[in-house]
Structures are given as structure tokens and as C-alpha cells.
Recover the amino acids of this structure.
């Protein structure tokens, strides 16, 4: 079953019974936990934070899940919870996201990886979130708006600026202006 | 107002993800600076996503389900504790008010007035109501106060 099928399975009416709900959750989790972890890791810059927030996201999802959501809405909802948790974390602990990347078992032996990680570190948390949702998760502006709580109109502008900034940083040194 | 990006950017990114390119779109992407830049950023991020996915070891879903149940139980206990606390406060207020009323009300009356008021069916009902109320309040307060005294170690010497 593909990712969309698994998420749709969870969102189907059958999830209401306990057993069907648990099985549906397992499928949803298999389909979404890795992309969600990747988002949390790159937005926060820390693997331990991503681990914590991943668990917290699913616990909140199970506790609060609103009925009658389709597959895309479920995915958006998960990313929305994760984004809110990230913001809470930044605010409550006054953490500078991404100050200590690579401290949690991140391999450092790949130049490309380092380039991207270095670029991500230079971006603001909000810019990282938008870039990841748009270019890795392939979300539309409307879906990003739903996931981040920003207005769909401002997404276009913010994403454009973030992309320009990321492209400037990722450009090889000899071609930089 | 300066245009932000290319209008075909989303189509280009979708084609990049799905691999379904049209000749026209491919031509456009190769000649458009905005689309090329978007593709470059998207490719770098997607490669990073694939690399980092190998580092991801999410916990087993059953563990998440169990933790979620545990959190739900804790939340239910917190809710019930708040309710019990409110009931305890209300019961204490009622008991105090009843005590004050009894002391002041009956102290102001002479024995003869009390005796004269206690006749007929209405006084019997009033007395019966007061006794039943007092019994219920006592029955409700007794286990709560006993639990409190146990928790705080009253009389245990600790």
C-alpha cells in the first residue's frame, strides 16, 4: 500500500473501533513518521529534539484527532501539530534552533550533506519549515498554510525569499556575487 | 510590484517529483532562472531528506499508542481531581454555613419558641429534611476527610 493509501486507511470511517483504529494508526505511523522526523530534524537542527517532538506529535494527534479528515488533511494536521510543538519549544526554552547540529550522531563525511546542513543553519526556523514543506514534502501553498498557520497569500512571498536565500547559500563559492 | 518567482514553478516542481515532464515544460525549466533555482534547491533538500532518513529510528507504533493511553489516563485523573477538589470546597462551605446558621439561628430563639415552632406536619418535614441533608453531607465528607487525614499522615505520628 502506498503512503496516500495508508493515510486514507486511517482516515476511513472504520478507524472508530479500537482494533481497526490501532491497526490504522500503525499504518499511518509507518507512512508518516520518517518524513515527519526529517521535517522536525531539519527545522530544529537537532536529532534529539526531533525524536522528542515526533513522539509528542503522535500523542497529541491521538488525543485530539478531529473526525472526518481525508488523507491530505491528516498529513497536514500532523505537520501542523509538529510545527506548533517546534514553535512552543523555541519560545519556552528560548532555543536558537540549529545551534548544535551534528551532535547527535549526524555523520559529517559528506560534503553535500554538510553544504545543505550549513545552508539550513543559516536560515531562520520559519524559512526552513517552509522550504522543507514545499520542496521535500511537495505541499501546495494552501497545504503549507494549513500546516504552519500562516495565510496562503504570505506563503508565496515568504517561500520565495527563503528559496532565494537558500539558493544563494547553496551556490558554489566561486559563483557567488 | 516585482513578481515573486515564475508562475510555472509549481508545475516544474510537481513534474520533478513525479517524473512526468512535458517537452514544453522541460524547455521552460531549462531556460528559466527562477525554475532552475527552485529545482536546484529542491534537489539539494530532497537528497538531504533521503540521507537523513537513514538516521531516523522512530519508536515502535505500539509504544506511541501505549504512551498516548497513559497520557489520556493521566489527563482523566487530573480532570477528576479538579472536580473532587471543587466538590470538597463546596461541601466545606456548606458545612460551615450550616454550622453558623444552626448556632446563630437556634441561639437567637428561646426554648419556648423552638418548642412552639416544632408542631404540626410542616415542622416534621423540615426536621426530617435537615436530618437527611446532614446525613448526606456527613456521608460525603467522611471518606474525603479520612482520605485527607491518611494522605497527610494525621494521627500516624509521622
Amino acid at each position: 500500500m502506498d503512503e496516500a493509501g495508508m493515510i486514507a486507511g486511517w482516515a476511513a470511517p472504520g478507524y472508530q473501533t479500537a482494533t481497526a483504529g490501532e491497526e490504522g494508526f500503525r499504518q499511518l505511523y509507518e507512512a508518516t513518521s520518517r518524513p515527519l522526523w526529517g521535517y522536525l530534524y531539519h527545522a530544529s537542527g537537532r536529532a534529539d529534539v526531533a525524536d522528542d517532538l515526533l513522539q509528542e506529535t503522535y500523542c497529541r494527534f491521538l488525543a485530539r484527532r478531529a473526525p472526518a479528515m481525508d488523507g491530505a488533511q491528516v498529513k497536514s494536521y500532523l505537520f501542523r501539530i509538529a510545527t506548533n510543538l517546534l514553535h512552543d519549544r523555541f519560545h519556552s526554552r528560548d532555543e536558537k534552533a540549529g545551534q548544535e547540529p551534528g551532535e547527535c550522531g549526524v555523520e559529517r563525511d559528506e560534503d553535500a550533506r554538510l553544504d545543505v546542513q550549513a545552508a539550513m543553519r543559516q536560515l531562520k526556523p520559519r524559512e526552513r519549515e517552509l522550504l522543507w514543506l514545499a520542496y521535500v514534502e511537495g505541499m501546495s501553498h494552501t497545504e503549507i498554510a494549513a500546516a504552519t498557520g500562516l495565510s496562503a497569500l504570505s506563503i508565496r512571498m515568504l517561500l520565495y525569499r527563503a528559496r532565494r536565500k537558500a539558493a544563494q547559500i547553496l551556490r558554489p563559492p566561486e559563483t557567488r556575487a | 510590484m516585482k513578481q515573486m518567482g515564475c508562475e510555472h514553478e509549481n508545475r516544474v516542481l510537481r513534474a520533478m517529483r513525479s517524473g512526468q515532464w512535458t517537452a514544453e515544460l522541460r524547455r521552460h525549466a531549462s531556460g528559466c532562472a527562477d525554475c532552475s533555482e527552485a529545482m536546484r534547491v529542491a534537489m539539494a533538500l530532497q537528497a538531504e531528506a533521503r540521507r537523513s532518513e537513514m538516521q531516523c529510528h522512530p519508536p515502535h507504533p505500539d509504544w506511541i499508542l501505549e504512551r498516548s493511553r497513559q497520557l489520556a489516563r493521566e489527563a482523566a485523573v487530573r480532570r477528576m481531581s479538579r472536580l473532587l477538589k471543587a466538590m470538597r470546597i463546596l461541601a466545606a462551605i456548606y458545612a460551615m454555613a450550616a454550622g453558623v446558621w444552626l448556632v446563630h439561628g437556634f441561639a437567637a430563639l428561646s426554648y419556648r419558641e423552638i418548642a412552639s415552632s416544632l408542631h404540626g406536619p410542616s415542622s416534621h418535614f423540615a426536621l426530617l429534611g435537615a436530618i437527611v441533608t446532614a446525613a448526606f453531607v456527613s456521608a460525603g465528607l467522611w471518606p474525603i476527610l479520612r482520605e485527607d487525614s491518611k494522605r497527610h499522615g494525621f494521627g500516624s505520628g509521622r
